[in-house]
Amino acid sequence: MGKIFFLICLLFSAHLISGCVVLSFDPIYSDDNKIETPASLIGQWNVIKLTGSDVSDKKIDPWNFKVDKVLVFDEHNVPAEINLVFFKVDDLIYCDVEPASVDEGKINFYWLLLVVPFHSICQVKIEEDTLILTPLNYDWLKDAIEEKKVSVPAYEYKMEDITLFKSEPVEWVHFLRKYGADPEAFSDENAFVFKRNKTSDSH
Predict the structure, then answer these.
(1) Integer Cα distance of 134 and 87 in angstroms
(2) CB distance 82 to 117 below 8 Å
(3) Per-residue b or e along 2-32, where b marks 16 or more CB atoms closer than 10 Å to that residue's CB
């Protein structure tokens, strides 16, 4: 039953990946560029935008960031935990994310995107009381590879026409140094935006 559920999630998530999430078989960070979780990030954050869409009026529970994971809620307030590892390339901060746990009775949308389980990457910006997590743009990266503008080892999942990545951390470092500041690679249109929940002292 567990394997059947896993395969269903894999196929369903494959349909959702396009334009949303770059998935890597291996961690994107290394011990050399791994950093501690920024202290200013820990705590609860009110959800303003999810993948670029304004959801400030949908009464989504605050996301709760801890030292090595975050409790997330989708638009239906279904919870799930996602593991976080922060790392730095030059002056930019990123986080490697992968699924941790989920409510067995309900499936959280953002956990489902990572259920395979693979690693994914977001660029992290904290500006006073605003937190912005911007995922690497899957469509942009896939097109750039097909046009031979970018070289990142990848595997084409032919059944669903999905590109999965298998690159060493050093290859990701080289890529991020070149494209980390590219507004197409990390597009505001896909950003997760939060405002600090000042009514909570949860850490």
Answers:
(1) 14
(2) no
(3) eeeeeeebbeebbeebeebbbbbeebbbeee
Q: Is 59 left (phi over 0), alpha (psi -120 to 50) or beta?
A: left
Q: Where are the domains of the chain?
A: 2-196
For residues 193 and 50, give the distance between their C-alpha atoms in angstroms, rounded to a whole number. Answer: 7
The string of pLDDT tens digits covering residues 92-146 is: 999 999 877 545 555 555 555 545 567 889 999 999 899 999 999 998 998 998 8
Mean pLDDT of 16-35: 79
Confidence check: pLDDT of 201 > 70 = no
Contact between residue 133 and residue 192 where contact means Cβ atoms under 8 Å apart: yes
pLDDT tens column, 50-105: 888 899 999 999 999 999 999 988 888 888 888 999 999 999 999 999 877 545 55
